[in-house]
Amino acid sequence: MTPYAATLDTIRAAHERIAPHIHRTPVLHSTALDALAGFELFFKCENLQRVGAFKIRGATNAILQLDEKIAQAGVVTHSSGNHAQAVALAARDRGIPAHVVMPTNAPRAKREATAGYGARIHPCEPTYEARMATCLDVARQTGATIIPPFDHAHIIAGQGTVALECVDQVDGLDAIVAPIGGGGLISGIALAARELPGSIRVIGGEPSGADDAARSKASGELVGMPKPRTIADGLRTGLGELTWPVVRDLVDSIVTVTDEDILNAMQLVWTRLNIVVEPSAATPFAAVLSPAFTRAVASQGVRRMAVVLTGGNLDLDVRDLVPAV
Ligand SMILES: Cc1ncc(COP(=O)(O)O)c(C=O)c1O
């Protein structure tokens, strides 16, 4: 019996289950970025996924597995980010109600996008305690099932489907590089990679202002991060009970980067690949460009790697780009 939340079998089953509901996102390559990084890079474009982020994979996998009677009472989650939109859309696909608890300071664009997918928004105070309490309240009152953002076997298996597509789309991959927030994505990737042929390394990118996973891995004990400070809003979360053991045992290394590194990587992706990615998504590429990354993989013969561009949802106001005249 595996001690971990998912296996290659559950990840393959998840892929079959969600395939009709997700896009098989493209992989982009740029010789200019290869030259800059000194590696062969294949960018897996989950920013072009439905809802603009990989999160639809896990949410769909979880929601499709609810028993019909339970599903009819709906689902609830608390999030101000991509998971909220993913739960809203996956619930709409299944034809069931979705409730999303959002702090009152959530960006208007995210609130509107989530409501646009048909979810009912429940505003709450912007503290973790208030979010949890409101979420539990809604679950109690409506009978809705809570869909957590990362620490759930079905979410982890769903996110791991990214790895299956990467190995299918790129021959001879040596590594997959992904960001770490709560660790759902990288856990799914690591659990798939360990059973796939070839020895595919799994490397995490994390902001130095939210480096709880890197510090936990270095110390061998799960450490929290009470006040994360980073522009990468999807990566401010700490690891969970299911994701920590996977990160501890199966992620090869974690490279931390500054917000300045993340902005630089984001600009390179925008201008060289001509696609929009959000800061959390640029983080693994920023890691690849850092000297610490080269040191981390120096002895491992890593040459060809997939870099997961996890999302592209940004509050962009194009008018800010117009120079004052
Ligand atoms: C764009 C983006 N990238 C990465 C992550 C981190 O994913 P996880 O919490 O599974 O580590 C998130 C989480 O919200 C995200 O929205």
Q: What is the CATH topology descriptor of the largest domain? A: Rossmann fold
- Supply the number of structural domains: 2
Mean pLDDT: 95
Structural class: alpha/beta
Outline type: globular
The name of the CATH architecture of the largest domain is 3-Layer(aba) Sandwich
Percent helix: 40-55%
Strand content: 5-15%
Small molecules bound in the structure, each named once: pyridoxal-5'-phosphate
Count helical runs.
14
User: Which sequence of strands runs across the widest sheet?
Assistant: 1-2-10-7-8-9
Distance between the termini: 67 Å
Characterize the largest beta sheet: strand count, sense, and whether it forms a barrel.
6 strands, mixed
Low-confidence stretches: none
What is the H/E string? HEHEHHEHEHEHEHEHEHHEHHHE
Rg over C-alpha atoms, rounded to the nearest angstrom: 19 Å
CATH class call of the largest domain? Alpha Beta
Instruction: Tell me the number of strands.
Output: 10
What this model shows, in words?
This protein has 2 domains: 8-53 and 152-309, Rossmann fold (3-Layer(aba) Sandwich); 56-146, 3-Layer(aba) Sandwich (Rossmann fold), CATH 3.40.50.1100. It is built from 14 helices and 10 strands. It has 325 residues and is of the alpha/beta class. The strands form 2 sheets. Strands 1-2-10-7-8-9 form a 6-stranded mixed beta sheet, with helices on both faces. Strands 5-4-3-6 form a 4-stranded parallel beta sheet, sandwiched between helices. The termini are far apart. The model has no long low-confidence stretch (mean pLDDT 95). Bound molecules: pyridoxal-5'-phosphate (PLP).
